[in-house]
Design goal:
Radius of gyration: 20 Å
Distance between the termini: 29 Å
Bound molecules: zinc ion
Largest sheet: 4 strands, antiparallel
């Protein structure tokens, strides 16, 4: 499943090919993905210029003067910029034809858990309301996302500390709560807690300010590292041969229950927090 680093890598891969280009036609090969595709996509998008490709949490926004197309990759979705004559496959559900060069932006999604929605100008789509701040620092890649955190909250150790006071939920569940911070999925929560030496089972309210600073730094480090790696391991976004793959990460904890801890060599523990498998070192993480 694409996590924040894959979505960000996708954004960076596509942006040079679509930003500044006009959408000349919209082809929908089915009326719905995870949800019905709103009529505005076909009615308003043709003739509009894509001013920017932004990311908010795991959504991509294609901004135009008429509004923004909002796309989620779901479990198996991918985007590529292809020659318009590239044969259409069974799972190629949407094409946006781009002016100049005879190319289309094509959305492929075998499992159809992805979504394509519409956000009118000056509004925030309901799915994007109430989200916590982005975990990557402002200016991480160009201008900070406008209105990224409607609350004005900025992600960091002191923010996590403040939000966690009195909370009894395990710190891992707290970190994965999109209302607290977006885009920290199971893999990256496990890796960041390992790097920060914090047990995922510890109550969120019982983690000190100092340790939340370590944790916030670790979240940024694991996500940034994954994005850097993604830039080199994701396949070409403008190649017709196959969809861009999701990248393998070098992981210390996630998926390694029972294997030796990379730091101390003791077997890593595994338990369930909510619906999520959780792996940690009982010696290095307290
Ligand atoms: Zn250990």
């Amino acid at each position: 499943m694409p996590e924040l680093p894959e979505v960000e890598t996708t954004r960076r891969g596509l942006a040079p090919h679509v930003e500044g280009r006009q959408v000349t036609a919209v082809t929908l090969r089915r009326p719905d993905l995870r949800w019905p595709i709103p009529p505005e996509l076909s009615a308003l998008l043709p003739g509009q210029r894509i001013e920017a490709v932004r990311r908010r949490a795991k959504y991509l926004l294609f901004d135009t003067a008429a509004g923004s197309a909002l796309l989620h990759l779901g479990m198996s979705g991918s985007l590529r910029v292809l020659p318009a004559e590239t044969p259409v496959g069974t799972h190629d559900h949407v094409d946006l034809a781009l002016e100049g060069g005879g190319r289309v932006l094509r959305f492929t999604d075998p499992r159809r858990f992805g979504s394509l929605l519409w956000q009118p100008p000056g509004t925030t789509h309901p799915l994007l309301r109430g989200l916590g701040p982005e975990p990557l620092p402002p200016g991480f890649d160009g201008p900070a996302f406008a209105g990224a955190a409607s609350s004005g909250a900025v992600f960091g150790g002191d923010y996590l500390f403040a939000r966690s006071r009195g909370r009894k939920v395990p710190v891992k569940a707290f970190l994965m709560d999109q209302r607290i911070v977006v885009g920290v999925g199971n893999i990256y929560a496990a890796e960041a807690l390992f790097a920060a030496g914090i047990s995922p089972l510890r109550a969120a309210g019982r983690v000190s300010r100092e340790r939340y600073r370590l944790l916030a730094d670790a979240v940024q480090a694991v996500l940034s590292h994954a994005i850097e790696r993604g830039g080199t391991t994701l396949r070409d976004f403008i190649s017709p041969d196959g969809a861009p793959g999701y990248f393998e990460q070098e992981l210390s904890a996630y998926g390694r229950g029972g294997a030796p801890c990379p730091t101390c060599g003791r077997p890593l523990k595994q338990a369930w927090i909510g619906q999520r498998a959780t792996v940690w070192c009982g010696h290095c993480q307290r």
